[in-house]
Write a structure and sequence with these properties.
The protein is an alpha/beta fold. The protein is 37% helix and 15% strand. The strands form 4 sheets. Strands 4-12-11-10-9-5-8 form a 7-stranded mixed sheet, sandwiched between helices. Helix 3 packs antiparallel against helix 11 and helix 7 packs parallel to helix 8.
Length: 441
């Protein structure tokens, strides 16, 4: 049985395409590897056919067949004010008429840089780039240039883009250097990365004891969102900060996902911990390709053209992306924006938990700011192993039932979800109603 409210197509939208999602996916696989331009979009872990979206407005998406969905992906985080926000669209339209890219400095770049430095005080200088991968890759290069060391520590379950040195899995023994987890990554590059369990204080202490003068940087998501939502202990982050300070290692927070999403000042503000470098993205582009990395002035001053660490990009800071980012940052600074967003997200999680409990389903959920995670397990996970122990088969069934009812969740049990300011009581109630049906399947 489908929820009739959610299953209805929009009364105001008629798709212009004549092909079905199935037809589009079949044809796409002929021209695009796997039929998608980013792997998770292929629905490989949940099965079925991905939806080809044609339009978004507010909290909703419409696919090629005209079906409407409540969207809890939000382009994987950027759409914090909702799709096609009138003020963002108007700003982009006005900007496009003046030119989209110059390959020169612009005043807009300066304005965005000033806004980022003001909102994230740990960032004294910032460099704009085009993607989160560029931001993390450049942060690591900069950290190595600053420390004159080679070794990087990352954590299991944290994803930092498709950087060669970070597409790795743990070595064969405790505290051995890593092995590639992707074809095309040389062992020599992977061999400069240590992979440690997330949220494990003993592991980081042991690593620093074994390699006290070799570690250039530690990079992590201060709140993990790429193994579902996992919130570490403050003690873990605090000990990490202490060790990095003691041994002159650069602490990099990857806030590509959490920056301006969990709090106006990022996860680092919530935990009251200051990283040396921060990578940010998603929200700062307002749906356009834009990211950045920044931090201590003494480190950032090593970047070319003033320093020896090279980094460049033809479209970095292009006017369209910066315009969308500036307008989005303006909107999220409105009074009570984050308080309302956090409460809406919590209401979603509370409703799902209560509904699952009534159905006798082992289930849990949690949220921070506009991010949430849910798990087919009795307890909130603390480690990647806890996430892996979830009932993934049950997740897949739930995902497809919700999708059929017009609720678009991440097509993987290892991804966090996102709520926007456009989501309100109507959308949350409809989602909980759909979950009642899905839990009964």
């Amino acid at each position: 049985m489908l929820n009739p409210l959610l299953n209805a197509a929009s009364q105001n939208y008629n798709p212009t395409m004549t092909q079905t999602n199935e037809q589009l996916f079949t044809e796409s696989q002929h021209y695009i590897p796997g039929g998608v331009n980013s792997p998770v979009r292929a629905f490989k872990s949940v099965g079925g056919t991905p939806k080809f979206m044609q339009r978004g407005k507010g909290a909703y998406l419409w696919d090629a067949e005209g079906k409407r969905y409540i969207d809890y992906i939000g382009s994987w985080g950027p759409m914090i004010v909702g799709h096609a926000h009138a003020k963002v669209v108007a700003a982009l339209q006005a900007r496009a008429a003046l030119g989209t890219s110059f390959g020169t400095p612009t005043e807009l770049e300066l304005e965005l840089a000033k806004a980022i430095c003001r909102l994230m005080p740990s960032i004294e200088q910032v460099r704009l780039v085009n993607s989160g991968t560029e931001a993390t890759m450049s942060s690591i290069r900069l950290a190595r240039g600053y420390t004159q060391r080679d070794v990087i520590i990352k954590f299991e379950g944290c994803y930092h883009g498709h950087v060669d040195g970070l597409l790795v899995k743990a070595g064969s023994g405790a505290l051995t250097f890593s092995q590639p987890s992707s074809a095309g990554v040389p062992e020599q590059i992977a061999g400069n990365t240590l992979v440690l369990p997330y949220n494990d204080i003993q592991a980081i202490e042991t690593a620093f004891q074994k390699y006290p003068e070799q570690i250039a940087a530690v990079i992590l998501e201060p709140i993990a969102g790429n193994m579902n939502l996992l919130i570490p202990s403050r003690e873990f982050l605090l000990r990490l900060r202490e060790l990095c300070t003691q041994l002159n290692t650069v602490l990099i927070f990857d806030e590509v996902m959490t920056g301006f999403r969990v709090n106006l000042h990022g996860a680092q503000h919530l935990f009251e911990i200051t990283p040396d470098l921060t990578a940010i993205g998603k929200v700062i582009g307002g749906g356009m390709p834009l990211a950045a990395f920044g931090g201590k002035r003494e480190i950032m001053q090593l970047l070319s053209p003033v320093g020896p660490v090279y980094q460049a990009g033809t479209l970095s800071g292009n006017p369209m992306a910066v315009t969308a980012g500036l307008k989005t940052l303006e909107l999220i600074q409105q009074p009570l924006f984050f308080e309302t967003l956090a409460q809406t997200t919590k209401n979603l999680c509370d409703g799902l938990i209560a509904t699952a409990k009534a159905a006798g389903i082992a289930f849990n959920a949690q949220s921070v700011g506009g991010m949430f995670g849910f798990y087919f397990a009795e307890a909130i996970p603390q480690t990647l192993a806890d996430i892996q122990a979830n009932d993934h088969k049950r997740f897949n069934q739930f995902f497809h039932s919700m999708l059929a009812q017009g609720v678009y969740l991440a097509p993987s049990s290892y991804e966090a979800g996102f709520v926007s300011a456009a989501h309100g009581e109507t959308e949350i109630t409809a989602t909980i109603d759909a979950a009642k049906i899905a839990f009964a399947c």
